Amino acid sequence: MIPAKFDYIRPGSLEAAVRALADGGDDAKIIAGGQSLLPLLRLRLAYPELLVDIGGLPELRGVTIAGDCLLIGARTTHYQLVHDPLIAEHCGLLAQAASTVADPAVRHRGTLGGSLVHGDPAGDLPAVALALDVTLIARGPGGEREIAARDFFVDYLTTALDPAEILTGIRVPTLGPGWGYRYEKFHRTAQAWATVGVAALVRRSNGTVAEARIGLTNMGPVPVRAAAAERAAAGAQASRDALHAAAASADEGTEPPADLHGAPDYRRHLARVLTGRALAAAAGV
Amino acid sequence: MTAQTEVPAELGQARLRKEDARLITGQTNWTDNIRLPGMLHMAFLRSPYAHAKITRVDVSAALQLPGVVAAYSGADFADEQGSLPCAWPVTPDIVMPAHPAMAVDEVRYVGEAVAVVIARDRYVAADALAVIDADYQPLPPVLDIREALNESSPKVHEAGNKSFEWTFANGDLDAAFRDAPVVLERNYRQQRLIPAAMEPRSVVCSGVGGEYTLWSSTQIPHVLRFLLAAITGIGEQNLRVIAPDVGGGFGSKLQVTAEEELALLITRKLGRPVKWTESRSEGNMTVHHGRDQWQRIRIAADTDGRIRGLAVDLLADMGAYLMLVTPGVPLLGAFMFPAIYKMDAYSFRCTGVFTTKMPTDAYRGAGRPEATFAIERIMDELATELGVDPLEVRERNWIKHEEFPYTTICGLTYDSGNYEAATAKAKELFGYDELRREQAERNARGDSVRLGIGVSTFTEMCGLAPSRVLGSLAYGAGGWEHASIRMLPTGKVEVVTGSSAHGQGHETAWSQIVADQLGVPFEDIRVLHGDTQVSPKGMDTYGSRSLAVGGMALVSACDKVIEKAKIIASALLEAPPEDVDFSGGVFRSRSGAGASKTIQEIALATFAAHNLPDGVEPSLDSDATYDPDNFSFPHGTHLCATEVDTQTGMVTIRSYVAVDDVGKVVNPLIVEGQVHGGLAQGIAQALYEEAVYDDAGNLVTTTLADYLVPSAADLPSYVTSRTESPAANRLGVKGVGEAGTIASTPAVVNAIVDALRPFGIRDIVMPCTPERVWRAIQTAQGEAQKGAPQSGAQEGNGAA
Amino acid sequence: MTQINVTVDGVSYVDEVEPRLLLVHYLREVVGKTGTPIGCDTSNCGACTVLMDGVSVKSCSVLAVQAEGAEITTIEGLANGEWHPLQRAFHEEHALQCGYCTPGMILAAADLLRENPHPTSQEIREGLEGNLCRCTGYENIVRAVRRAAETGVSQ
Fold first, then answer.
1. CB contact at 8 A, B102 and B117
2. What CATH number should be reported for the domain holding residue B772?
3. DSSP character for A77?
4. pLDDT-based confidence at A255, cuts 50/70/90?
């Protein structure tokens, strides 16, 4: 209920934030929206000694288009993801998935960067970032670094960021014409975490699927791409039956957890069913 | 002569609530709002083990922290804390172990208090807890009551794991089952629930010179005062208990808790006011839990579905200790298994068993939802066995409208009812026949999303309770309620009630009742409650009793006011009392050519006392203590339509109709609101909620992230309606607070099973999670493939 | 200790607070706004919902130091001489029983109507997914929000 004590600093610039984080060592942590961190602090599951508040840094907000990519600041809130016109136009999957996170009040505060760095495989946005093949941009004492999404999620609640690095934004290749998308989230109640979630992108070429990308939420210690199902879907007919058939291998290579809401075999089954549904929706059939 | 305008009766008026103004503007009086000069904050260190010997509790490091005033372990209270009370020793040989407020030598559930710190604020108190050194020697947990009764099981208490066995029987059960053409046996699981009222518990205590005031988020200020005085030795006259605004109870705050007792003992020890407010995770662990039974039900019937006999065998999980009414909760359901049905024989047995878990106790319905669930589920089974519509088989067995009042096989006399009317109305609102047709079509097509229709025709016994009946059941207290009425000199009215509302709108409904009885305006009445100094006598609020019992106490008190006023009025009107009528707030002399006096005029005249007859006290103030002579028996027919996605197991409720008969209605808004709220909790038991312990005895569902209390997005809109069969009391009112919860759980589960019967499925263990539904379908389809008989029966095992 | 400047219900405050102080505790215990309750520790129940710079937030999941420079509206600041249309609608539709969830529910509803002035019942239910009520079963809450929307609420 009550967090343990910590020191607090609210730097006025990104450089100052990087310095503060580096000076703070292993026990320093970034706080942005705090929607993942506050519950951990209150349940005393996390004991940072220093919180570096990047809440005031303007360079971490904003959505701009640069060539064939969108640049999204790490501090962009879920609410902003849902409402930003550039995101709606160029990577609507992110908007649709963000709209399913928690509830409106949490979405007003929670950030894209916070979700990605928290690295919870049960969170919605990591699987989406994986499906979109985003590039994560980090700033540390040694300067700026880019990390591909597929290299970013290393283990449960563990990313490839160094402790002294701050995620400043992501770069998302824009989805051109022919792409459809769907984030299919299966959860027991509206507020509940996804038992399983499927982020699907499908590029149609007339009546067939030219390319499919599938990211899975809560099917392992990290978000995973359902590579076998992607391969099966590529070249498949853009029909419900064909795409459900392609989804039969959606759970290959996954290690779904067992918890109150599902045993591994049930999650595998859900992943297959939901992938079929997500592919069909993304394909517009 | 003054023209009298007809004042419309308040009974049945949808009056907006007097309570609302402070609640919607944030001018509330929650216990946690209270700040007293010099007040300190308490925080409890709680056992991380389900069962362990406490080998060491060292609070010295906590005492070193700045701002920490005191810290204690159980040993510091061993001599004075006594035992938290159980007021219901249901059998003479019941095993009722000592229950220390703070554990001294041994802990028996995760969360049991082992130490307490008292500090200047809650933040320092939390830090102090983190540095207390406590060592334990773990003992084996006892987690499954079916195994706990084995000789080889570890013991929760030295006296053994069985607390009691209670039986009841009437009629010749052997004859009923012998040669019965239809005999069904089913096993059902009532999962453990967490009541989860929105306001976390909070206690504030202060005391000067041996006189104490305790504020608590409680449903039972009067009972709490009596029992805390008894346990602590503090004179009852020196203890004032106040329930300020209380944010929901549902039975969870019908309790005498460790924290309340310890707050009192610590205030006495330290001479400083103290406050304790729980966190949600603390509450999920240590507010008493609800339900938790294994049920074996057997029914014997004729070929036409007429019930011959019913046999019920329950195992009830008490948890680690018997708390206030823990052993009695399953027994409250004992008389409700026969429900609305006639039968020749009935037997009931309940075995109460200890486990190393949080004790169970009353939670909305307290024994009756468990009973209604079992009978309504097995009635559906009977219908399926006979190939008869589930409503049809019920109608063949229920008590006919003309047969009321009717004495059941349990010896209860149901006052009134009209199951035919409620059912007909429900069917019409629901579109029952059209939905059955749609269901048949979709089943024939083999749709992957199946429609299920669930039925629940319930009654319940509430308006707790006739004191003699409570006595016969060995319950420690009575079931009366108290009210006092004061007419102020200016004609306004103060009503003091022993009921203790925590959301039920008594201030409004009681104003309506008194307005009708005394003929005074609704706005002129103020209802006072919840403070033992203001309302000195009462039996508090639970068991849907306040209107049926507390409301009737008001009526009795008003009768006395009118009687006193009539004597004074007749003197002022110079007419004999027999010639004076009272109606609409006015006393009129039949002979006196239009002479009249309002009750307000009588109140003023009484205050002035200038012209009172000899020997008449200058007071209209009256009180009454009303003891009901029977329970009240609301009933209803609920119909639920569920859509079951057989591919994922997801269940959604497509429509829900509740037609309830709660007798006459004082305030239809309040009644409808109680039904809505009850439905939400009953549906949540069917679909979402379960208090889950792991193999080590840790509560897994400690937060609202895991214990799934539904939001508006997770529940359907309800269609509610009523029929009206007046109760036997003068107001004609029955209780409503628990009815929605009692009825809805079986309605939902019956609907899910109904959807899945084509697969050979007969049961889904609650909560009917998508995984459980899916697994039931897999199992049934697997058996079908193997060519095995399609039983699909799911023996409840509590596993996810 | 960190100094914060916060405006609460139109009044500005300057305070020294521990960084770990939750905004909801700051409001309740430092500023004295006990109208905002606390119901859980995992930001599920929404009882603590307030408006921060015009949008709903769960004040148990915000540190007071993060509210530096912000304008907070609590339930106590919603009425403006007379009740806000949502307060009136909750009263008229009997959308509260014990009242504990009510401040958060009303402020969440205010935010919902700001976002979507004419929501359907389904949109209301989804918009209030972050606010739990144990008493009302939500039916009357949905009616109240619809009613307030009909009277034309603007925040």
1. no
2. 3.30.365.10
3. B
4. very high
* pLDDT higher than 90, residue B755: yes
Which DSSP string do the residues of B470-510 spell out, in sequence order? Answer: HHHTT-SS---EEEEEEE-TTS-EEEEES---SSS-HHHHH
Domain match, B603 and B667 both: no
Mean pLDDT of chain A: 96
pLDDT value, residue C153: 67
Amino acid at B583: S
Local confidence band at B326 (pLDDT 50, 70, 90 cut-offs): very high
Nearest chain A Cα distance for residue B775, angstroms: 8
pLDDT higher than 50, residue A34: yes
Angle, CA B218 vertex, CA B214 and CA B219 arms, to 5°: 135
Return the residue matching tokens 């106040």: B242
Please report the residues numbered 62 through 91 in chain C whose beta carbons come closer than 8 angstroms to any beta carbon of chain B: 74-76, 78-79, 83, 87, 90-91
Segment 185-204 of chain B within 8 Å of chain C by CB: 196-200
Task: Write the residue in B648, B688, B774 that is nearest to A189 by C-beta.
Answer: B688
Q: How is B226-291 classified by DSSP, letter by letter?
A: HHHHHHH---GGGEEEE--B----TTTTSS--HHHHHHHHHHHHHSS-EEEE--HHHHHHHSPBEE
Nearest CA in chain A to B713: A190
CATH superfamily for domain C2-77: Beta-grasp domain (3.10.20.30)
Is the pLDDT reported for residue B44 higher than 70?
yes
In percent, the amount of chain B with pLDDT more than 70 equals 97
Q: List pLDDT tens digits, range B199-231.
A: 999 999 999 889 999 999 999 999 999 999 999
Please count the other Cβ atoms lying within 10 Å of the Cβ belonging to residue B229: 18
**C-alpha angle B497/B498/B503, rounded to 5°?**
80
Q: Are residues B601 and B669 in the same domain?
A: no
pLDDT in tens, C89-104: 999 999 999 999 999 9
Q: Which residues of A touch C (CB under 8 A)?
A: 1-8, 10, 31, 34-35, 38-39, 41-43, 51, 53, 55, 79, 102-106, 108-109, 190-191
From chain A, the residues in CB contact with C58 under 8 A are: 105-106, 109
Can you give the pLDDT at residue B798?
36
Name the residue among C77, C122, A260, C66 with its Cα closest to residue B703: A260
Give residue B787's pLDDT.
63
Mean pLDDT value across residues B773-800 = 66
C-alpha distances out from residue A285 to A182, A236, A276, B171, Å: 12, 13, 11, 64
Answer whether 0.90 is exceeded by the pTM: yes
Torsion of CA B578, B582, B583, B584, to 10 degrees: 170
Which residue stretches of chain A are H helix? 14-24, 37-42, 78-83, 85-90, 92-98, 104-109, 112-118, 124-131, 149-152, 227-233, 240-246, 264-282
- Rg of chain A (C-alpha set): 19
- Name the residue range of residue B648's domain: 290-464+630-786
Residue A56's pLDDT is what? 86
Residue B5: the pLDDT is 46
What are A103's two structure tokens? 């509830």
Reduced to 3 states (helix: H, G, I; strand: E, B; else coil), residue B316 is strand
Strands C49-52, B239-242: pairing kind: unpaired
CB contact burial C52-88 (16+ within 10 A = b; e otherwise): beebbbbbbbbbbbbbbebbbbbbbbbeeeebbbbbb
Same domain, residue pair B642 and B753? yes
Structural domain count of chain B: 3
Contact A251/A271 with Cβ under 8 angstroms? yes
Asked whether the beta carbons of A114 and A35 are under 8 A apart, the reply is yes
Name the fold adopted by C85-150: DNA polymerase; domain 1 (1.10.150)
pLDDT tops 70 at residue B698 = yes
Cis peptide preceding B405, ω within 30 of 0 = yes
Going from N- to C-terminal start, the domains of chain C cover: 2-77, 85-150
